[in-house]
Write a structure and sequence with these properties.
Belongs to the acyl-CoA dehydrogenase family. By secondary structure, this protein is α+β, with helices and mostly antiparallel strands. The chain contains 13 helices and 8 strands.
Length: about 400
């Protein structure tokens, strides 16, 4: 897509800035520029109240159809909102998984009853969701999942047993969508993508245990989640039973959208922090660091151009496939650049609010090339699916 400013879009951009300036203040001021759960000082309860403030202002469900309570805004204005949201210091969205991943999947595969039950709470910022995909033996190789789901012969409920890992925000969520296996025979016969179901499961029940995982940053963003006879209503599966893989892949495809431009706006904020520090501490006088700063800036502009291209509905697979690989490498390199600009200070435990975020950037970005499909897996997928090479 091409971003072309018009009077309508300029007015919309100004509207976003004005609303954010008025509302991201007062009691919400501590959330400004907080990247999300796992970031120091990020208050999850306050972040949930912020989600509800956004909902009251009409800033949730921007791309949803009006029949579901959304605004059905054109893609260009969705991009504008996500970019301006971050530029104004908007915090990481604790409702992101529900609003941008699950909701479109509900619209595509959910029953009328499921849509009526779950979409209003997601839109209002009152219901929060976690993603139950990865397992200890099935991360990038998601088809290797072993979590099992079976029907209770008496109640008709689904009964779930197994374990999920790296489950972001499960400790702050009421619900989790769980990819589980219903047909072990099919998996054993080689049909690894068959015999699955995507279930909607309440977290706060006796059969679910959530254990936060302490990260290298000292905080906890994600968790282990154990299912030991956990139950959910027999009607709470998305799509046909046995076709869960197709539904799960549709959901992952929803990650490629206007919100990726918001991610890159946050990258810009981080890069600007590094450039400002380089000017203050003299690192900008080093010709090699200057070259790396310039390269980072050019790389970010390239990522934005690619993201805009990928937002097009008719984007070829080969174009969309490189996104995760490209931005994760760029962001990891940015973390290393931050430490090099910090110099000797980077080796110390810093309390300076102007410097510590750059240390945190380096620590957090180490995981970028691992989660959501490791770089090695991404390269294989690009070779097989985008370039047509044999497995």
């Amino acid at each position: 897509m091409k971003m072309q400013e018009s009077e309508i879009n300029e007015a919309f951009r100004a509207e976003v800035r004005e609303w954010m300036g008025r509302h991201l203040s007062g009691r919400f001021a501590p959330l400004k520029h907080a990247s999300g759960l796992g970031a120091e000082g990020y208050d999850a309860q306050l972040a949930k109240e912020w989600e509800q403030e956004l909902a009251r202002g009409g800033w949730t469900g921007l791309g949803w159809e009006t029949q579901y309570g959304g605004r059905n805004l054109p893609l260009a204005q969705q991009v504008i909102f996500h970019e301006e949201y971050v530029r104004c210091g908007g915090p990481g969205r604790i409702g992101h998984i529900g609003e941008t991943l699950l909701a479109p999947t509900l619209m595509a595969y959910g029953t009328p009853e499921q849509k009526q039950r779950f979409l209003p709470g997601i839109l209002a910022g009152t219901d929060y969701w976690a993603q139950g995909y990865s397992e200890p033996g099935a991360g990038s190789d998601l088809a290797g999942i072993r979590t099992k789901a079976s029907r209770d012969a008496v109640t008709g409920e689904w009964v779930i047993n197994g374990q999920k890992v790296w489950t972001s925000w499960a400790h702050e969520s009421e619900w989790i969508f769980v990819l589980a296996r219903t047909d072990e025979a099919g998996a054993a016969a080689g049909a690894r993508h068959a015999g699955m179901v995507l279930l909607l499961v309440p977290i706060k029940q006796a059969g679910v245990e959530v254990r936060p995982i302490r990260q290298i940053t000292g905080t906890s963003e994600f968790n282990e989640v154990f299912f030991d006879g956990a139950c959910t209503d027999g009607a709470l599966h998305l799509g046909p039973v046995g076709d869960g893989w197709k539904v799960a892949m549709y959901l992952l495809g929803c990650e490629r959208g206007a919100s990726t431009l918001g991610q890159q706006a946050h990258f810009r904020y981080e890069l600007d922090l590094i450039i400002a520090l380089a000017r203050r501490n003299g690192a900008a006088r080093d010709p090699l660091l200057r070259q790396r700063l310039a390269k980072a800036d050019l790389g970010l502009q390239t990522l934005r151009a690619h993201a805009l291209r990928s937002c097009s509905e008719d984007t070829p697979l080969r174009v969309a496939s490189v996104s995760k690989y490209a931005w994760s490498n760029w962001h990891r390199d940015l973390g290393e650049l931050a430490m090099d600009v910090l110099g000797e200070q980077g080796e110390l435990a810093l309390d300076d609010p102007a410097l510590r975020p750059l240390q945190q950037l380096w620590l957090v970005s180490r995981a970028d090339t691992i989660y959501a499909g490791t770089n090695e897996i991404q390269m294989n997928l690009m070779a097989e699916r985008a370039l047509g090479m044999p497995r």
